[in-house]
Amino acid sequence: MSASDVEFSVAEMGKRLSAAQILAFPGGFSGGDEPDGSGKFIVNMFRNPSLRDAAEELLEKRDGLAIGICNGFQALIKLGLLPFGKIKALEENAPTLTFNNIGRHVSAISRVRVASNASAWLNRVKTGDVFQRSGKSRRGQIRVRPGYAPKVEGKRADF
Q1: Which residues contact 84 (CB under 8 A, 6 or more apart)?
Q2: CA angle, residues 117, 62, 11, in degrees to nearest 5
Q3: What is the pLDDT of residues 64-84, one digit of tens each?
């Protein structure tokens, strides 16, 4: 892949984001799922000013949605979209996604309670509803350092 191929891809992604309603970061494995795997690739791509601006225009001005699955969820955190609601450089003490306590994949059925339905993803369910979902992850902890309370500037992060 040449530099011009990357430039073409970035320009094409920017055009498509301008017509999108949802920014979806997929899961997937790259480099043998080395730490942060494709999450690092996604973050590096969206640090590009044209992609960052297109993503922020979608989310802030057109009330678009964002979702991250697997490594895509890592990208949401590493970009700052969670919990800040915008792409930004992260402080050293910013929240991060880290390994489970046992350090290996965990596969389980989890009970998930809806804490807020003020989201297009959840507006047809009731606050307090409980759902079961299956999941598998090696990095299943969101680590927030004690005393850290991010300023979200009026934005909401639905976990």
Answers
A1: 150, 151, 152, 153, 155, 157
A2: 125
A3: 999 988 888 888 988 989 888
